Amino acid sequence: MPSKPLTTKDLEILKRLVELDTVSYNDLIGELNISREELSFFLKDLMSKGYIEKSDEYLILTDKGRKLFEQMKEKYIYSSR
Fold it and tell me: Residue 37: inside a domain, yes or no?
């Protein structure tokens, strides 16, 4: 079964983790202006794909997540030229 494509919110979450290395669950709710339930939905998907990990109350970007974000950023840069 093919994996679900990443959403704009998924990419926003990855971007925040790239910028900050770690971020708390509550901080993300405020920054993304979404409900706890919505954030939980996005995080479960990103964790199941191995892009982020949860450590205590913080979310951490994995090497796989960092690599994906860099690839997405590179595609965007090249496609916008």
Answer: yes
Segments forming the whole domain that contains residue 57: 8-79
The answer to whether position 3 is within a domain reads: no
Q: What is the pLDDT of residues 23-36, one digit of tens each?
A: 888 888 888 889 99
| Alpha carbon 24 to its chain's center | 13
Whether residue 22 contacts residue 58, with contact meaning beta carbons closer than 8 Å, is answered with yes
pTM, 2 dp: 0.81
Exposed/middle/buried for 32, CB within 10 Å: 0-12, 13-18, 19+?
middle
